[in-house]
Amino acid sequence: MSTNIINMLICFIGGFIGCMIVYGLCFWKGLYAPDSKSKYSFLPFLLSALCCLGGLSLYFNSFYDFIVPPEAKTFAYLIIGTAVIYAAAQLKGLKRFEFFTILLVAMLISSFTPLRQISYFEAMPMWAGPIITAAAWAVFAFCWRYLNALTGLVALCAFSFCLGIASLGWLNGLPMLFAYIAAAWGGMALTVFLYNKEPARIKLSSSDCSVLGFLLGFLLFYAFLEKSGPCVLTFSFFLIGEMIFGTLNMLFNGKISGLNTYMAYYEAQKTGMPINLEYRQISRILVLLLIMGCFELYAPNDYSVPVFALVLTLWYLYRLQNWQIGNQTFREINREVISEIKTNIKQISKNSAKD
Fold first, then answer.
1. Which of 158, 169, 229, 251 could form a disulfide with 189 if both were Cys (CB 3.0 to 4.6 A apart)?
2. Are 103 and 131 in contact (CB under 8 A)?
3. CA 6, 8, 12, 17 torsion: positive or negative?
4. DSSP code of 333?
């Protein structure tokens, strides 16, 4: 067994046990109320994650396997920025400006770290890169809150995302420092899942989910500098797919609010799908995306595998929403999908005519 794999296992186990101990001490000291509504349920994870980020970046600081080596201040900026976002979210006066706080911090980090070198298309002006990165990073972070209507789902998706990045490190697709960080965060996310899954002992707020998304977003966008952006983007397709699925569902119903209530996982939960079965079905999607993200590392281009993975994710989300239908042939399901689309288009036309 190679040294890198051993180090990843140590980081994962250390992150899991360390975070578990911190949460255990919090419960032992009675810091969390029995109703699982403590305001600071996410704080043990956040402190553990930031300490781990700082410690690993200082210990593995040779950066020999980076295409674009991070500057010494990069991880310090990330730690400070994440702390600022979390602290601002705890203040009632600033909570309403949470998205703009995330956007501002993302803009600063994107402008003063190697992330400013990301180029999304040819002949792109140098000033445009940090703006696009910051905007996409803020949206990515903010969207994680929409998975929070099912307890444990945010932590489960974060665990899968981190496991994918660690796998890319093992396959030499990303620097090992990121693999170690992701492995440690994956162990911590697993701890949060065990405490947050039904029956939940802790509760994550919308702000907590956005802070988690902000941390994961850094790994996502730095992966573009390391030429593995499409791979890591594929790992996040459950989130992106749910956002697309929920938005289309919401528009078909003529609504402009309550986005999470139109997502596939919420529809399945609302129609009585057993929560353990829902965890299993979502885990299958996440495993599939993890495998396809790793395949993308060897794909001839940056588009074929991610496009197929996104289409497949939307298909699985449709099956998740309609879990009670049972087994159907491919032709029967296609016929039903086309029929629903026609019905929704007619409904939109009627709503437009009334307006």
1. 158
2. no
3. positive
4. H
Length, in residues, of the chain:
355
pLDDT digits (tens, 9 = 90+) for 27-65: 887 777 655 556 788 999 999 999 999 999 999 888 888
Q: What is the dihedral of CA 153, 142, 237, 223, to 10 degrees?
A: -120
Q: Could you write out the DSSP letters of every residue in 59-105?
A: HS---TT-SSPPPTTHHHHHHHHHHHHHHHHTSHHHHTTHHHHHHHH
Supply the Cα-derived Rg of the chain in whole angstroms. 21
Matching residue, tokens 């797919």: 241
DSSP secondary structure letters along 271-302: TT--HHHHHHHHHHHHHHHHHHHHHHTT-SSS
Return the number of other C-beta atoms located less than 10 Å from residue 7's C-beta.
17
- Three-state DSSP at 253 gives coil
Average pLDDT in the chain: 88
With beta carbons less than 8 A apart as the criterion, state whether 185 and 15 touch.
yes
How many Å apart are CA 208 and CA 41, to the nearest integer?
Answer: 9
> Would you state the pLDDT for residue 94?
81
Distance in angstroms (rounded) separating the CA atoms of residues 65 and 102: 30
Instruction: Count CB neighbours of 106 within 10 A.
Output: 27
Higher-scoring residue by pLDDT: 216, 260: 216
Q: What is the pLDDT of residues 218-229, one digit of tens each?
A: 999 999 999 999
User: Structure tokens of 273?
Assistant: 């799908």
The 3-state DSSP class for residue 324 equals helix
The total of other beta-carbon atoms located within 10 Å of residue 345's CB is 11
**All residues at 6 or more sequence positions from 165 whose CB lies less than 8 Å from its CB, including other chains:** 174, 178, 179, 182, 219, 223, 232, 235
Cis status, amide bond into 199, omega within 30 of 0: yes
CA dist., res. 297 & res. 295, Å (int): 5
Provide φ and ψ at 215, rounded to 5°: -60, -45
According to DSSP H, which parts of the chain are helical?
3-28, 43-59, 74-89, 92-95, 98-112, 128-143, 153-170, 176-196, 206-225, 229-235, 237-252, 264-270, 275-296, 304-321, 330-354
